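Need tokens for this chain, all 268 residues.
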Amino acid sequence: MKQIKVGIDAGASLIKIAFQEKRRMHYKKYPIDELGDAIMWLKMVAPNLLVALTGGKAHLIKQKYFPNGVSIPEFQATCEGARLLLFEEGIKMENPFLVVNIGTGTSWFLIHNEKYERILGSGIGGGTFTGLGSLLTTSMEYEKLTVLANAGERGNVDLLVKDIYESDVPPIEGNLTAGNFAKGMKVKHSEADRMAAITNMIVETIVLLTLQAAAIHQTKEVVFIGSALTYNPSLRGGIETFTNKLGLSSTFLRNGEYCGAAGAYFSY
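Here are the structure tokens for all 268 residues:
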């Protein structure tokens, strides 16, 4: 029986799978609490598997389901996957360049040809979006939170530069944030406004850290990947707008959330 190779990226909230069929890469994902369904689907589609695993929960899945599987270091899988997906999409980057992986938290990598290095990490990311979202709204579902964020007005929650200067001309752009969530309960606002403010705080934090990393390592090329960007137009749009304003070149991979799974697949 022919063996089929599969790359699995087991993160804090998602199981992402990469495999090749008829010379084309295919990708699939499941919530972490549907792990049993993911394994059942894999074994049904291809009973004889060669499995390469990466991510925080890889060792648990390997131990329980795939004892003969191969473990690939997470940072290696992420960077190799990013390089492979850039090639797959026909995108050429100037060396060195940054890869910013926005998952539950956010990691920054510096890539130069075949070398890579994790240079920075932050707890701000997709986990912040869903976690704070569930605390500040009545919804706990990621998709609903993204709809709220896209419909909200952050200026009803955030104190903006133009709010401080009022009728005077501000020395910097008036729509920039002077204080995240600084208006508190002083101004009437909605759940959508709160989600817009959460998203903006995440965007500003990630972009400012990216700008500092780019300056230190003398590059303006940035590739953004990660599951937090998927179906989240306000997060992606905010990052793209701010990075471009600050003189950075931003690239978003079509299948960027699968970099870890693709990297594990091709590293086997």
